[in-house]
Amino acid sequence: MRQVLKPVLCLIAGLVLALPLAACGDRDAGPEIKPPAPPISARGNPAQELDGMRRHVPVDVEITPLPMARVENFDRTRGRAYPMQPPTIPHSIDGYQVDLNSNRCMLCHARNTAAQFQAPPVSVTHYMDRDDQFLAEVSPRRYFCVQCHVVQTDAQPLVANGFMDIDEVLRMERAQ
Fold first, then answer.
1. Which is nearest to 5 in space by CA: 22, 24, 23, 30?
2. 37-52 per-position pLDDT tens digit
3. Distance between CA 49 and CA 160 in Å, rounded?
4. Where are the chain's structural domains?
5. From CA 137, how far away is CA 139, in angstroms rounded?
6. Kindly report the CA angle at 21 between 35 and 7, in degrees rounded to 5?
7. Dihedral class, residue 56 (left if φ above 0, else alpha if ψ from -120 to 50, else beta)
8. Residue 146: what pLDDT?
């Protein structure tokens, strides 16, 4: 029994304590295996890239999450954070039913009711199927709005973003 337990315990000790197998006595020490170095991205150290999201806390330490962001409910749309970003939702959608049977968003944003509710109508692209054929109703692949559109909140960005919309770039060029 002791002969069976010793190799098992040596293996466990080697894995847990990172001891070489030679420390167990009767085993030959094999070549030392070093873990590969972490890949370095084009921007530098990957640990520094995550630092903004980790708030300068090491990866192996658990941190207290930030408080939940509050929904901004003042019908003012924000600029885009990257090219082709879907517009954010400038109002609360708590309690909105969006499922196979009903889509509460379309009550106000459907093309035939948008003017009545003073809401922007959904883009014509939402009425196109994958073959670019126009449909009478919203395309099934665009039916679930919150797949792409998110509610605007007062959350601060986790990483810096210097994106400028093409209109801003053209304005700056004209000013110079």
1. 24
2. 665 555 555 555 556 6
3. 11
4. 1-28
5. 6
6. 125
7. left
8. 92
**Cα(118)–Cα(149) distance, integer angstroms:** 19
Torsion of CA 105, 156, 61, 43, to 10 degrees: 100
The token pair at 14 is 């080697």
List the structure tokens of 50: 């995550």
| pLDDT at residue 23 is higher than 80 | no
The C-alpha atoms of residue 3 and residue 6 are separated, in whole angstroms, by 6
Secondary structure (3-state) at 64: coil
The residue whose two tokens read 């499922």 is 99
- Which residues, at least 6 apart from 4, have a Cβ–Cβ distance to it below 8 Å? none
